[in-house]
Amino acid sequence: METVRFDELQLDERILRAVTDMGFEAASPIQAQAIPVQMEGRDIVGQAQTGTGKTAAFGIPLLQKVDPKNKKLQAIALCPTRELAIQVADEIRRLAKYMHGIKVLPIYGGQDIVRQIRGLKDGTQIVIGTPGRVMDHMRRKTIRCDHVHTVIMDEADEMLNMGFLEDMETILSQLPEERQTVMFSATMPQEIQDIARRFQKEPVIVKVVKKELTVPKVTQYYYEVRPKTKVEVMCRLLDMYAPKLSVAFCNTKKQVDELVQELQGRGYFAEGLHGDLKQIQRDRVMGSFRSGTTEILVATDVAARGIDVDDVEAVFNYDIPQDDEYYVHRIGRTGRAGREGIAFSFVVGKEVYKLRDIQRYCKTKIIPQAIPSLDDITAIKAEKIMEQVMELINDTDLTKMVNLIEKKVLEEEECTTLDVAAALLKMAMGEENEDIIDCSRPARSLDDLDRYGRDGGRRGRRDSREGRGGRDARGGRDRGYGREEREDMARLFINVGKSQNIRPGDILGAVAGESGISGKLVGSIDMYDNYTFVEVPREYAEAVLRAMKDVKIKGKNVHVEKANGKGR
Predict the structure, then answer these.
(1) Residue 19 is part of which domain span?
(2) Which end of the chain is more exposed for a tag (fewer CB within 10 A), N or C?
């Protein structure tokens, strides 16, 4: 589709000026198609995913129709959640920046109804509200629909999912017959089609479906984890990537509260958002998140609807969503306004098959990743501290401190200035704990689950049951999967181990990188102080041996040969 500029859409000059102030020149595909149709006065059904610019797609034509001199209610927009209602109202206000006399009022449950009634009496032309609260005002007759010429249903499928079907039908049936009915929905289930058939007049269907339903600038990773290690893995990723703002999604309100408590206990600035919070609490949480005071927002899917914060750099699927579409909505919270974002998903056991189905639905790639080790995180922390140290050296006179250290070193005679520096670095980094997570193996490729990880497959059983890549807590062989059960695997001996500061991930990377075989085909990696055993498919054993000749791992020359007998 050709790019359409806003100045080609015959918009009111005041709206065009506001759009320019917002930094937009070209209309998105849904805007380019939907705006001209609505400006003709036609009913419309727009199908597009989140983050495509739907609000402006219906907000701009709406403002073209509204008469600022008429202080009667002229338009109603229905939204599934309070957050989305607030967000839509804010954006329409920005679009109406230069259209003096237009008043937009969000109305929703949890807010003082007396204040809303006062606002409605004060000449409001556009109401943005949740179905329940709009119906409440209609019953009270504080919303009168005699002059309503436009009704908009935003995210109609989500209103359906939340049980608002009857409310939607009731509201639509009480509006004037002569009106324009606009409906936007990410999907078109039968119930939504029925509403269109009953309440719209020959609607124009405008459909914008991306080849990838998710935002193309969002890089998507997933990690196979155990339930008890989720928090630790999330913290490692937060430390490694250091996102400015993050949103973490949980499937239950209880899990939201528990995760917030865990993160706060570890020193992160986190807050929760779910349906049990009062509106004043929700407003406080969102205000804190938008200002950057809260760095991590933990939310349920319903509570997070309508969150539109451009600076979100990372999304965590702490729990895998129950519905494929929820995944699309979740990761659409990042990578907005042309920015790049990252999405991390945690899968436990057989949830990996659910994620595979999500990947197929989204027509995108979710990349398997190994969990960062404590050594990785330590290196990153050390690098950050050293950067701060170098800045201090360059910007500050440290003569007094140098003299103090030199005096101490001369007095003690048992340490050097380098020892002092190392000790100070250790103090700054805190205590190092033993790594309780096996970080040696990347998650399995979702594309290859059918071949290598079916529920009935040997490898799939091992990984889902243990989650430790076939090794027990001591690093030895897993007795349940001895040589007799792995006839298809060859066992190789490598003459380096833990004493040389070699990790399982180093072995995996060397074997896969040098031989060209996929890392997911590598079996158990059993490390000891001075040597390592690694399993590879028997058919690739000779190729691996050839490829590993004269190879170095972490600067160490290695020798690889077939293991023979017990121990070797």
Answers:
(1) 4-207
(2) N
